[in-house]
Write a structure and sequence with these properties.
With about 350 residues, the protein is α/β, with parallel strands linked by helices. It folds into two domains: about 5-140 and about 335-350, Rossmann fold (3-Layer(aba) Sandwich), CATH 3.40.50; about 155-330, Rossmann fold (3-Layer(aba) Sandwich), CATH 3.40.50. The chain has helices at about 20-35, 80-90, 110-115, 125-130, 155-160, 180-190, 210-225, 240-245, 265-270, 285, 300-310, 315-330, 335-350; strands at about 10-15, 40, 70-75, 95-100, 120-125, 135-140, 170-175, 200-205, 230-235, 250-255, 275-280, 295. The strands form two sheets. The protein has a six-stranded parallel beta sheet, with helices on both faces. Strands 9-8-7-10-11-12 form a six-stranded parallel beta sheet, sandwiched between helices. Strand 4, helix 3 (about 110-115) and strand 5 (about 120-125) form a beta-alpha-beta unit. Helix 1 packs across helix 13 (about 335-350) and helix 6 crosses helix 11 (about 300-310). The longest helix is centred in the last third of the chain and has 16 residues, at about 315-330. The model has no long low-confidence stretch (mean pLDDT about 95).
């Protein structure tokens, strides 16, 4: 959906061709935000249903929006902060610059310099905020709780997905690579599943390029243990199909070594599925310890095995965790909450009332 730049108050750039978490965020948020504010994305590869400005039109757009006021440029990467500064200072566009940081490490000198020139800064978690030097606002990512919801008939859902109806299903979804800790998940399952014959592990996702040998090594290790019927490797499914695969689970594991934010425990919890997650990303904000799951140290297969043993041996605990998951997500982790919190900052930067 192409938009006239003159009519746009907020621009959300996505200056990367390959699918990433930032890309997913822009694709999810912009259509929802466009219901309440004149926002459009821009970038080389965006779905047709996302309101957008053609990238080549940016240098030629009017200095001001059609009402004579500024526009907000909401960057989420260094290259997008640089592009915003170039548009503002070299091409003299009237822009208020905003940046969202998901990083959980000390920023490079370049990144820190860029952030210092932003008019507003958002962090996606308390951990991310701790690495920012100046004022910032923490706004968690949210999810579509209509799409991600518990299955009305879990057994029927499992049948439709060709999954066993009576097994306790433990999932780990997403990109398969060392930073995501997929090997830790597999190692913990190899240790734990022999003690819990009713449980099964599901690894679903895609390994690309240099990570393909990593995936093959995991497959080989599972086969060497004679566990191919207990630990299944499933192909990546389209984004619109993922909710069903979460709803089929009984327990989710997020074993990441490093993570910027990490939506998967949110998506699982919205489906009524508790998580065991490492202490990285926003997992400590998402998972309520002892209420909707538990947190473990990063890079520690023994800790994950112990956590799995504890909950698999206590069905009542797992039931309590499951019951508490969705209410927690509905109370502050909806994508509508994220959209409105960002819009409030846009309006403040634009100096415009809610009638925009």
């Amino acid at each position: 959906m192409l938009r006239d730049p003159a009519t746009i108050s907020v621009i959300a750039p996505n200056l990367k061709r390959r699918l990433s978490g930032v890309t997913s965020t822009v694709i999810r948020l912009v259509p929802l935000q466009a219901r309440d504010i004149a926002i459009a994305a821009t970038g080389p590869v965006l779905p047709d249903d996302v309101p957008q400005i053609a990238l080549h039109r940016l240098p030629f757009m009017s200095r001001h929006a059609s009402d004579g006021g500024p526009r907000v440029w909401h960057a989420r990467r260094n290259i997008e902060m640089i592009a915003g500064l170039a548009l503002k200072h070299l091409l003299r566009k009237d822009l208020a610059l905003m940046f969202t940081s998901a990083s959980q490490r000390r920023h490079t000198a370049l990144t820190a310099w860029l952030i210092a020139r932003m008019d507003a800064v958002v962090a996606t978690s308390a951990l991310s905020a701790g690495y920012l030097r100046g004022p910032n606002t923490v706004i968690h990512h949210g999810i579509d709780t209509d799409t991600f919801a518990p299955a009305p008939d879990k057994r029927a859902l499992c049948r439709s997905l060709n999954l066993p109806e009576d097994a306790l299903l433990i999932g780990c979804y997403g990109r398969i690579r060392p930073s995501k800790g997929t090997d830790i998940f597999v190692e913990a399952l190899l240790e734990t599943l022999p003690r819990h014959p009713h449980a099964m592990g599901l690894v679903m996702g895609r390994a690309v390029g240099k990570d393909q040998p990593f995936l093959q090594a995991l497959r080989d290790r599972v086969a060497a243990h004679g566990m191919t019927d207990r630990i299944r490797f499933l192909p990546e499914v389209p984004a619109q199909a993922t909710a069903a695969w979460y709803a089929a689970l009984d327990l989710y594991v997020a074993p990441q070594r490093h993570e910027g934010f990490g939506l998967t425990p949110l998506e699982a919890a919205a489906c009524g599925v508790p998580s065991i997650a490492t202490r990285t990303g926003a997992f400590a904000d998402i998972v309520a310890e002892g209420e909707t799951g538990t947190l473990i140290p990063t890079d520690n297969a023994a800790a994950l095995s112990g956590a799995l043993d504890a909950v698999l041996s206590d069905p009542d605990r797992l039931s309590r965790w499951s019951a508490a998951c969705r209410p927690r997500i509905l109370s502050g982790f909806r994508i509508a909450d994220e959209a409105q919190a960002l819009i409030a900052i846009y309006r403040d930067l634009l100096g415009r009332p809610a009638s925009d």
